[in-house]
Design goal:
It is built from 18 helices and 15 strands. It is of the alpha/beta class. The chain folds into 2 domains: 9-116, 2-Layer Sandwich (Alpha-Beta Plaits); 124-417, Alpha-Beta Barrel (TIM Barrel), CATH 3.20.20. An 8-stranded parallel β-sheet has the order 7-6-5-15-14-11-9-8. The longest helix has 19 residues, at 184-202. The radius of gyration is 23 Å and the shape is elongated. It starts with 8 loop residues before the first strand and ends with a helix. The structure holds 2-carboxyarabinitol-1,5-diphosphate (CAP) and magnesium ion. 2-carboxyarabinitol-1,5-diphosphate binds next to helix 15.
Length: 420
């Protein structure tokens, strides 16, 4: 407990719930430290004092009131540019130990040598604003709905309606990849053709985020196909493709001009149980390290769980360059030259949420509206107009109601979604 972590240590902070067979939090943290590094359930003749001296981790913080422990691991325990190995250590076997009832990885602090081993985001918020030419407002997007079911031409038409209506970005849904009724290549060609027409018609840059989620070799081929056809974004479902594939696709796209949008479908299997798994904060840190340009972190006001404090902390860890150690919820982190990741709020949002979204989450965001666009009484293009009108209202300092007087699409959105 008197160990002073060195700047070369990786620090993991855990919430620990001990099981009846566990003596106390000290015992629990010792078992966690052992099982995540050099120890096992019993003494072994093969572990020498030298190895122990060189590699043993140290618990240096135990907060009995919050049941939180912090463990410092020498970086020698890790293959620093191998994120799967790092997670197999600090987020591996320890979850299943009988001595614990629950375990939740709250946060990780990476030492500079590990931070330097990763590329981080290629674009950063500045780079995305430069590419999209959207300067002083959130980027606005929709998700083609129904999630799956449309054919390639119908899909492209809906994208066109959303872009003409005023949205910057249209994305595939998390479960749309290449279906018998909607083949990836044909969808990309049709949709990018429509994008070009929408750009000419509106005079604004328009972006399509195709979902390339697939086994890695297919992801690479699909990313290449998007690039060959003039696409500038790809979307990846980060949990279902896995950490190894994420590292590889980030490296693969490093010399190509393509933004990576990270969808977090499945994250709630890890993040939702507040006593077990890992926080979206920890997951967000991993995604910035690997180099996702945009990441869903929650809306606070929409349909998915994720409270204000949790979402704001995620967005802070994605966008700040230095994080001080505020003890119980966030570890200190110095990101060095790693660029920020642009947070995305999506899920159950309608134009009526925009004042609260700007108030709570601010403008350096992507806001996405699926049902909140295509569910507009007058259809997708009107839905997109209503979203754009709502943003204009807030940025011009007027209420949505006032702005709706001269903007019928917004008025109709209020009619449909305004009733509590
Ligand atoms: C939103 C969405 C997004 C979720 C992801 C959906 O659609 O397309 O995938 O928002 O949630 O499939 O539900 P709606 P999160 O706008 O129609 O809700 O961003 O929390 O990971
Ligand atoms: Mg979705």
């Amino acid at each position: 407990m008197d160990y002073e972590p060195s700047e070369n240590d990786l620090i993991a902070m855990y919430f620990v719930e001990i099981s009846p067979e566990c003596r106390n939090l000290e015992h629990a943290s010792e078992e966690i430290a052992k099982e995540s590094s050099i120890g096992t359930w019993t003494e072994i003749a093969t572990l020498s004092a030298e190895i122990a001296k060189k590699l043993k981790p140290s618990t240096f913080y135990i907060n009995k009131e919050n049941s939180i422990v912090k463990i410092a691991y020498t970086k020698e325990l890790f293959e620093i540019d191998n994120l799967p190995q790092i997670l197999s250590a600090i987020a591996g076997n320890i979850y299943g130990m009988k001595v614990l009832k629950s375990l939740r990885l709250l946060d990780i602090s990476f030492p500079k040598d590990i931070v330097k081993a990763y590329k981080g985001p290629k674009f950063g918020i500045e780079g995305i604003r430069k590419l999209t030419k959207v300067k002083d407002r959130p980027l606005l997007g929709t998700i083609v709905k129904p999630k799956v079911g449309l054919n390639e031409v119908e899909h492209a038409k809906i994208c066109g309606d959303a872009w003409i209506g005023g949205l910057d970005i249209v994305k595939d849904d998390e479960n749309l990849t290449s279906m018998t009724f909607n083949k990836f290549e044909k969808r990309i060609k049709e949709t990018l053709k429509t994008r070009d027409k929408a750009e000419n018609q509106t005079g604004e840059r328009k972006f399509y985020m195709p979902n390339i989620t697939a086994p890695l070799s297919t992801m690479k081929k699909r990313a290449d196909f998007v690039i060959e056809n003039g696409g500038e974004y790809v979307m990846v479902d980060i949990l279902t493709v896995g950490f190894s594939a994420l590292q590889e696709i980030r490296d693969y796209l490093d010399d190509k001009n393509i933004v990576i949008h990270a969808h977090r479908a499945m994250h709630a299997a890890l993040t939702r149980n507040k006593k077990h798994g890992m926080t979206m904060l920890a997951l967000s840190k991993l995604m910035r390290l690997i180099g996702m340009d945009q990441l869903h972190t929650g809306t606070v006001v929409g349909k998915m769980e994720g409270g204000k404090k949790e979402v704001l902390e995620c967005n802070k860890i994605l966008t700040a360059q230095k994080i001080p150690d505020n003890n119980t919820t966030m570890l200190n982190q110095d990101w060095g030259d790693i660029k920020p990741t642009l947070p995305v709020a999506s899920g159950g949002l309608s134009p009526l949420h925009i004042p609260d979204l700007i108030e709570i989450l601010g403008k350096d965001m992507v806001y996405q509206f699926g049902g909140g666009c295509h569910g507009h009484p007058s259809g997708t293009e009107a839905g997109a107009k209503a979203i754009r009108q709502a943003i204009d209202a807030v940025l011009n300092g007027s209420t949505l109601k006032e702005y709706a007087i001269k903007n019928t699409e917004l008025a109709k959105a209020i009619e449909k979604w305004g009733k509590k």
